[in-house]
Amino acid sequence: MGHMHSVHLASIDLNLLVVFDALLAEGSVTRAAARVGLSQSAMSHALGRLRTLIDDPILVRTPRGMIPTPRAQELIGPIREALAQIEATVARRPRFDPATARRSFAVATVDYVELILLPRLVQKLFTDAPFVDLIARPYDSDMWSSMETGKVDLAIGLLPTVPAGFYRQRLIEEHYMCVVRKNHPVVGSKLNIKTYTSLPHALISPRGDGGGRVDEVLAERGLSRRVALQIPHFLVAAHIVAQTDLVLTVPARIARVFAEMEALRIMKPPVELGGFSLDQVWHERQAKDPAHIWLRGIFAEIARDS
After folding, report:
1. pLDDT in tens, 15-44
2. Which of the chain's ends, N or C, has fewer CB atoms near its CB within 10 Å?
3. Tens-digit pLDDT profile for residues 140-171
4. To the nearest whole percent, how much of the chain has pLDDT over 70?
5. What are residue 241's phi and psi, to 5 degrees?
6. CATH 1.10.10.10 for the 2-91 domain, yes or no
7. Which of 93-97, 141-145, 194-198 has the highest mean pLDDT?
8. pTM, full prediction
9. Which pLDDT score is estimated for 1?
10. Which fold has domain 173-276?
11. d(Cα 302, Cα 305) in Å, to the nearest integer?
12. Do 103-171+278-304 and 2-91 have the same topology in CATH?
């Protein structure tokens, strides 16, 4: 019996309940049709379906016009209440109040973003969203699927291609600068190509595969450099360069951070190295979520001021 009832409920067309409400409110097929935007024939057909569904005439003709049956009068109150609740639920827009929200966001990112954006982001969270936590994690092979399922909210970094179903927003346009220690014995007020290629270099290579934009540009000119130190992380690089004669070529914003941390000079590279862009990327399932919109806005604001 329970199975038959569930199948019966599954067959209910919500529009029939709207029709039912209009019929009892108007007491006329013609006026009810105009009220819900149907033709008179379509309303008559809907009334027939309602009578079959409820197993009741619903409206009967009398000398005083169409009047509802006792069964229809019994149902109209609960049906109108249900319709009002459905309408309110659908119309209600979710809100996000950062000042009171208690939740966490997971962001897949790289060292660059952690150095340039995260310090100011955390300050912003402490001020505006004191109960919101941030989880920074590295890229991995499951990043895209994790974003599809909501395990990761955002990916931020150098992401030239993204799968279908993802959105992107440009955050940063970046270029390269060099850093050397302040009392470097060879580097003067400018860094020329001869000095640049003769000095030993440090290279930050997170994946350990070596090479990079500098080597490509030098090779195009028939030149090369010696990479005396290759390391995977940014922070240790600044410390080492400040104590050696190594040259380090890094994104300009990283160079400024390094110069604040250590006794380093920022120098313009002697060759044009071009630049790169960083984007934030999210899955379409998060596109309209108010909390997610807020987080993306905070990252965009901080990136503009970086």
Report:
1. 899 999 999 999 999 999 999 999 999 999
2. N
3. 889 999 999 999 999 999 998 999 999 999 99
4. 96
5. -65, -35
6. yes
7. 194-198
8. 0.72
9. 39
10. D-Maltodextrin-Binding Protein; domain 2 (3.40.190)
11. 5
12. no
174's CB contacts (< 8 A; 6+ apart) are 251, 252, 253, 275, 276, 277, 278
Tokens of 151: 């395990």
- What is the maximum alpha-carbon separation in the chain? 110
CA–CA distance from 265 to each of 252, 253, 257 (Å)? 12, 13, 11
HSE-up (13 A, CA, CB side) for residue 304: 7
CA distances from residue 195 to 108, 190, 201, 211, 216 in whole angstroms, order as listed: 38, 10, 11, 19, 18
- The lowest-confidence range among 1-5, 33-37, 68-72, 175-179 is 1-5
pLDDT score of 173: 96
Report domain extents, the chain. Answer: 2-91, 103-171+278-304, 173-276
What's the N-to-C CA distance of the chain in angstroms? Answer: 66
Could you tell me the two tokens for 19? 């029709």
